[in-house]
Specification:
With 170 residues, the protein is mainly alpha-helical. 60% of the residues lie in helices and 0% in strands. It is elongated.
Length: 170
């Protein structure tokens, strides 16, 4: 008969209810809910269970396969992806963070950061990796002060700023 599972749930309904109350994440609750429904006297089909929890029937089937092979603990186990290996080592990132916090030694561009990493620290990294690290992980923006004319009078500039503030409030 299509949609009928061949999984025999070993835990009792009381044990499943107790585990459902103790579980913290919604993903684990979904998986235990599937076992709860299958333990009832007239269990619904896999397709009906999948539709009720909003998952594909193959996903529910994969959960049940994990349960068959290793029990509840195997079904609730989460595998964490190791992620990619960083091209820029942690010590270089810390050195760059220290350099970026020093306002006297700024960078004009991400290319300059890339060049500094290569020359000073010996770390070869692609432009995109440098940009991602600087902008998102270190949360730094490369800002360079606009150049000022050397002939500009500092006193006149300050008095202009004061006058501007007074007229701006009107």
């Amino acid at each position: 008969m299509a949609g009928v599972t061949s999984v025999k749930v070993k835990e009792s309904l009381d044990e499943l209810v107790q585990q459902l109350q103790q579980v913290e994440t919604p993903k684990d609750k979904e998986r235990l809910q599937v076992l709860y429904w299958l333990k009832q006297e007239k269990p619904p089909s896999i397709g009906a269970i999948a539709k009720a929890i909003g998952k594909h029937r193959n996903t529910v089937g994969r959960w049940l396969l994990q349960y068959r092979e290793g029990g509840v603990s195997a079904m609730l186990e989460r595998k964490v992806s190791s992620g990619g290996v960083r091209k820029i080592p942690q010590w270089a990132e810390e050195a760059l963070a220290k350099r970026l916090k020093n306002s006297e030694h700024g960078f004009a561009s991400y290319g300059a950061v890339q060049q500094w990493l290569a020359e000073e620290l010996g770390v070869e990294a692609e432009y995109h990796a440098v940009y991602q690290m600087t902008r998102y992980r270190l949360q730094a923006k490369l800002k360079v002060a606009r150049p000022q004319n050397i002939k500009q009078d500092c006193e006149r500039r300050e008095s202009f700023k004061k006058t501007l503030q007074m007229t701006w409030s009107c």
